[in-house]
Amino acid sequence: MTGLALTRRSALAGIALAITALAVPVHAQAPLQAVASFTILGDLVAEIGGDRVAVTTLVNAGGDAHVFEPGTRDARTVGGADIVFANGLGFDPWMDRLATSTEYAGPFVVVSAGVMPLRFEDEDEGADHAGHEHEHDDDPHAWQSVANVRLYVATIADALVAADPAGEASYRANLAAYLAELDALEADIVAAVASLPEANRTVITSHDAFGYFGAAYGLTFLAPVGVSTEAEATPAAVARLIDQIRATGVRAVFIESMTNPRLIEQIARETGATFGGELYADALSPPDGPAPTYLAMMRYNIETIAAALR
Ligand SMILES: [Zn+2]
Q1: Rounded CA gap, 283 and 287, in Å?
Q2: How far apart are CA 83 and CA 297, in angstroms?
Q3: How far is the CA of 73 from the centre of ligand 1 (A)?
Q4: How far is ligand 1, taken at its centre, from the CA of residue 206, in Å?
Q5: 161 CA to centre of ligand 1 in angstroms
Q6: Residue 270's CB: how many other CB atoms inside 10 A?
Q7: What are the chain's domains?
Q8: What's this model's pTM, rounded to 2 decimal places?
């Protein structure tokens, strides 16, 4: 009898504790600590996470994730995270290494998991691949198509709900609101491309970061460097691009915020093409720049391209 009474008392104590825990106001909870590999992904996680999630991004605004070398501080950040987000498709393989080396045990979310990858056609296969191994030639820049970002944010929302079920209503509401923003963005991009003369829809950029954008919205992007900034442009690739620009009468060339502009400036000089401005490919601008969020970045890019080609 005594044992039963004790058991009943501790059960009651347990219920009392549970009620106390429930009575703590939501805003007093510590936010979920999320880590994202690069700024564009960090912005998407912050949009869906809202005030329940604190996001840390490893590659800063203006940084280049292709050649990022994580330090001990980044390892500590991943080690202390509640949830980790990577792009995948070969863009940020150092995230897997960080998670493994720190024995991080939380969810590892690859946001491109639902995306149908574009294959990168590399004409200089032999030359470009001589120095290092490539397991695949998937184009990693899937976020340059709004349709893919719909998949990214749905994956992010599902992962946050799994990690923090109490926040489900909040995450689902943020997702719905953001999907509406993506619809409006996509309509603006389609309208801007439709306003351009059909003969004038070719764009030169620093590296092949806009394949998904071109495939989705009907522009052709050419670049002297492949899908990773890791490789140097070969003289043969640059010469071929210059010939192509002269033959097709491409009007404008663009640099990317995170890469050295010298090569693109040289191509503009040699072909007489106009310098169209700076595009944001793999990284957002700082908060006071023209592309501090994914939505702002995509609008800034299409406005810059359309202004130069119109
Ligand atoms: Zn890139």
Answers
A1: 12
A2: 25
A3: 24
A4: 9
A5: 30
A6: 14
A7: 32-181 (3.40.50.1980), 194-309 (3.40.50.1980)
A8: 0.84
